[in-house]
Structures are given as structure tokens and as C-alpha cells.
Amino acid sequence: MKTIKQGIMKMSKLLIIGTLFSLCTITGKTFAQTNTSKTLNKEKMEISQIKITPDAYEPFHLAQGHRVGDLLFISGQTAIRDDGKLIGIGDFDAQAQKAFENLDKVLKAGGSSLKNVVKVTIMLRDMGNFNKIVKLRSKYFTAPYPADTIFEVSTLFSPDALIEIEAVAVADEVADWKK
């Protein structure tokens, strides 16, 4: 009788261990399947190139910018006209104004605007123009002002270029600034 009881106890233990092992295996497979199905069923994010006409950047194999979902990533904008010629040689104010105008043009082509720029990077040939940039920020941007990085560079695409501005913005239709 003792041997039968011991046999039943061993069988019960084996049955419990087997059941737990099976549950762990099934749970692991279920988790893996769920994780895989979540990965496979993720919505794809639409990416589109922002185009303007005429596009002075096209000969250089550069995009004016890209819209990724509801975010816009804008290439550095300088003081070039539609024909690709730099304006305002030696005139920082003229070049800065044109660079901001070009930035505005590309943002609008991508479905955004200067009011929804969240990050701007400004490269200057001469940091002596920093105070002018502060004034221009209040002219072209509104509060809350975008995050900003400004730094001096030794040269830009042309030795005569004095400023370049790149930006990240949110599409107008989804922008909702908290007050």
C-alpha cells in the first residue's frame, strides 16, 4: 500500500510539473505570437518629400524637406532665389530675410507654417549677428518660441552665404499648442 501511495505521489508531482511546463510553453508561444502580430499590424508611417517649384536644390540631389507623419524636417534654407542664385552678397539682413522667407515657403508646401516650428537650427558665418537673429526670431516666430541651436561655421554652401536655417515643424492640421 505504501508503494502504491508513493507511486501516486510521484505521478501527481510529475503531472503537476508537466502541466506547469506546458503552461509555460503555451504562454511563451502566445506571448511570442502576440508580440509578432503587434509588430506586423503596426500602422505604417507615411513619408513624403516636400517639393517646391522651381527647386534650386534638385541639381544637388537634396530634398527641400520630408514630411514624416505629422512632422516636417526641413533642409537648411539660405538666401537663394528660385533660380539658385544667392542674393545679398555681404548683406546679412537681406540674406537672413530671404532665408526665413524660403523656410516659410517650404513649410507651407509641406502643410505647416512658421507658427508650428518646434526646433530650429541656425548656422551663422559670424556670431556677431546673434542679436539680429534674436530680433528676427520675434519677427518670424511667435510664442512659444521654438527650441533653437545657433552656432558659427567657417563656411556654408558658398563662401558668400552668411546664414542657413533648418527646422522641424508639426503639420498645421494637428498642431495644438498648450497654453
How is the biggest beta sheet arranged?
A: 6 strands, mixed
User: Mind telling me the C-alpha Rg?
Assistant: 30 Å
From the N-terminal CA to the C-terminal CA, the straight-line distance is 81 Å
Roughly how much helix do the residues carry, as a percent range?
25-40%
Kindly state the number of beta strands: 6
Unreliable runs: 19-27
Order of helices and strands: HEEEHEHEE
Strand order of the largest sheet: 1-2-3-6-4-5
Number of helical segments with 4 or more residues: 3
Q: Which structural class is indicated by helix and strand composition?
A: alpha+beta
Share in β-strands: 15-25%
Shape estimate: globular
The pLDDT mean sits at 85
Secondary-structure blueprint:
Layout: H1 2-40, E1 47-50, E2 65-68, E3 71-77, H2 92-109, E4 117-124, H3 130-140, E5 147-152, E6 163-170
Parallel strand pairs: 4-5
Antiparallel strand pairs: 1-2, 2-3, 3-6, 4-6
Helix pairs in contact: 2-3
Question: What report would you give on this structure?
Answer:
The chain is of the alpha+beta class and 179 residues long. It is built from three helices and six strands. The chain starts with a helix and ends in a 9-residue tail after the last strand.
Question: Which properties best describe this structure?
Answer:
179 residues; alpha+beta; 3 helices; 6 strands
